[in-house]
Amino acid sequence: MQDTALRKLDVVRDFVNTLDLEENKDEIATPAQLGAWLGGRGLTSEGSITAEEHRLAVETRETIRRLLLANNGGEAAPADLAELDRLADRAVLAPRFHAGGVRLEPATGGAVGALGLLLATVAEAMAEGTWMRLKACSEHSCMWAFFDRSKNRSGHWCSMRVCGNRAKARQFRERRRAEGSAG
Predict the structure, then answer these.
(1) For 19-157, where are the E strands, in sequence order?
(2) Rounded to 5 degrees, what angle do the CA atoms 56, 113, 90 make?
(3) Average pLDDT of the residues in 29-43
(4) What architecture is domain 3-134?
């Protein structure tokens, strides 16, 4: 696995992880926080984010999270893929040719253009075959985005020590309960 290819997805992983479900903390809870987050990653230099752009960003984050859950053994919902298509259209993503190759880039700026840059990264990862390595933790109280670095792409949890242990303990308790009621 190429770590450099995965590093391109760091910003997508970080974007999904702006919402910590276990701690109930959202780094982009307001338009101002979203603007600071996007600006801090060089995705936009425009500081003012509208309420509509903020809503779109939150929806995009959760759509990507659902696709990362699909990377963890499910199937991508056509509605989620259509949602990304609509955002790509709105950002006017188009190929831009450079001396080193071609890259999808948004023709729009601001928050929509910044979200378009995230989608361009997703599209590039899909084309390179690295997208399936980015997953959301299958522990539904967590759903943290993580890179599956296992050889056979079988990782299910962001941390075996925490989320994996929770899931295995829950399965053990359920088996014991079922055995107890059967006997």
Answers:
(1) 19-20, 25-26, 93-98, 101-106, 134-136, 145-147
(2) 65
(3) 95
(4) Orthogonal Bundle (1.10)
